[in-house]
Amino acid sequence: MEENQIDIQNIPDDKPVIEFKGVSKTYPSGTHALDDVNIRINKGEFAFVVGSSGAGKSTFMKLIMREEKANTGTIMVNGFNLTKMRRKNIPKLRRTMGIVFQDFRLIPKMNVFDNVAFAMHVVGANKREIRKEVSKALSKVGLGEKARSMPTELSGGEQQRVGLARALVNSPDLIIADEPTGNVDPNMSYEIVSLLTEINKRGTTVLMVTHDHNLVRDFKHRVIMLDSGRIVADNLGGGEQ
Amino acid sequence: MKARSFRYLIGEGFKGAWANRLMSLASIGVLVACMVIIGLALLISQNISRALGKLEQQNVVMVYMKDYSWALYGDEVEKVSEGGDQNGILPDSYVIHNDEEAKALCDKIAALPNVESVEYISGEEGLQSVKKNMLEGQEQYFSFLDEEYGNPLSSAAKVIMKDMSGFNATIEQIKSIEGVQSIKAQDDLADRINSVKKGVLVAGIWIISILLVISLVVVSNTIRITMYSRKLEISIMKAVGATDAFVRIPFVVEGILIGILSAGIAEGLLYFCYRVATETISQTLGTTDIVKYSEMVFYLLGVFLVIGVLAGAIGSFIMIGKYLRREGSEFSAI
After folding, report:
1. ipTM above 0.90, yes or no
2. Full domain range(s) for residue B22
């Protein structure tokens, strides 16, 4: 284990899975994306990240996934100090999180099973583990029967559930969902967030970016609102302010 | 990296090459062309070397010795009336008095590092050879040569050198040996052989270097196209925590595979072309002294495999490395 890393399994429930201290990010083009952001997201929390376009949501998520590096401040995610993290250690960080994309990111030439299994090949799992865990993940998202279907044969909602299964299959401690309901119909949106809520109840921390006010209102989770690179509201009680 | 991951990635490399078979075929075509030209350059240079080797063997250097004939017929030794023999020659005025001493001088020449062989030719043998080769049918006019005046030819050593590039240095070394009178050599032939050899070497290095760069660029570009067509997969790999090596291996495997296939095809194609060409040359020129493909088959296959594997591995390694540094770590927006 790295010097700047703590064991995620031993993070107490009230300890942060994500912690930003005085984080600012300015892109080389001069765009100020985040300005002095301070926030803690504890283990087992579910938080929505909301804000208009250009508010800094994407940068916020990119910093958590260590796709971008902060200019100032400290970021801790799943026990990793991202400010000091070397490039070669980024894969270790990403293996502790599951990422769900707005555009599903399914490989069209692979069937549902292989799309989910792909994430396990990356971490070097054996065939037996892969068979067991992929089936389990697909059952969790209600797609146990569609393991052999091709992505093109599925609806948008089903495709996103495959994406969710892929994010879950390596049993991550944190799920990062970047507008997972952006490309699905409203009914399916509720289903996706319900699934994420289920997963969260089992102890996985969930951070979800969304534009859908109805979802935020109806699922009573924490809401972090960004505007012009700053956190302007943080409703720990759930629901929209 | 775990062994099963490695197996999985090698399999992915094969799948990648098959999935992009049209593009792979295009680069195999260019690689094969490069390899065939490299192979031809090697075969031509081998044939030139062989021909030059024959020329070198014919480039005989004659070393004449300071023996009795030299003392008698030359101007360098003063004839005396007292103490000398019937011709006025003192025994100390010349160096080589008999066959043993002549052979000892030949041994000294043979001991020089650049000397391939030395053949001793006594004055008598030399004279017989001259009579046979030059005066045949007219012997009666030249009977005085050994009857009236004796043999004017000195003992000689017929020397063949190993490497003509060291020609002048070796000549100097021979000249410095005690008992050597003069040397007859075709300096211009030696110079020509050396310049042809240098020319062939320089041209060969240029041709091969340029074609190696072309091979590398071709494979790199194929891999780049493959890579962009698999942008989605790479983004997912990076998102789920794949290391750079994990992303890179299938592409490197694909590159190596293209290289190996190209090597095999180039070997077959070159064999066919060379056979046709040598048969035509043999029939037209009536020469059989051409390097056979069978003598070079493993050497050429080795060269092709090294070129193919290196071009494949390095080309894809560089390309995917570049991609991963620039774009590969971004996966939110592809």
Report:
1. no
2. 3-55+192-328
